[in-house]
Amino acid sequence: MKLFKNKLAVTVIVLSVAFLGLIIFTASKETKGPMGAAGDALNPIQKIAYNANRGVKDFVDFFLNFSDVKEENKQLAKENKELKNELQEYSNLKEENDKFRGILDFKEQHNNYNYIATNIISYSGSGIIDGYIVDKGQNDGIEKNMIVISPDGLVGQVSSVGSNWAIVQGIINENVNVSVKVENTKDNTGILKGYKDNSNNLLVKVSNLPVDSQVKEGDVIMTSGLGFLYPKDIKVGTVMSVEEDKVKVMKSAVVKPSVDFSKLEELYIVAPKDKKEIKYD
Hints:
MreC, six-stranded antiparallel beta barrel
């Protein structure tokens, strides 16, 4: 490559000197005799030669500076990647901030409870349908039947507790019953239980809704607070479909939980400040 550059440079220098000599020679002829006419005839040739010389010079400059351009592009690509990473990090932080803002809003509306943050350390049984084991228990004020939430909504309740651990059973389990209401229609007679569709998707189903209920796809399901077990107005999920049972004269709704049970990491135990009796309002 070095040898090629040297040969190319010598060629350019020789051509430049030759063209420069030709230009000086023809420019020094001021007479209009035969030589003057020949000079005029050479003007187009001089222009072509000048443009050719300039083109060769530009090409050589580009060739010699190509490594600099390549390095500059490499640096720009690196900076672009760093900016993308920073943007993704900002997006993740914003999403996390929005979620925990929901927890803070809930705490402000229900300030008669303590909220105990716990981390999931394992599954109870064969998988998420059997519940989670968290890293806090009786020593931290957790008791059986306390309600469990996440930034996205209702998770379930504490089914068992030890000194420094507890088992949380999710609403996707058929053994967990929740009194719920339809946010839009205000129907508050619904009972929610875990449900699997034909594709084995872990969903929940609300039964015991009035046959004349106006519940529809897209409606939001919330806890009703009836039964004094679950605090009211915790988001449960969104209606996917509605079914009518003409025999039992009622409607039911299949609901997609607002919580993604496969991605849970941190949970909050809702503990009444009055520990004499676990009673929610």
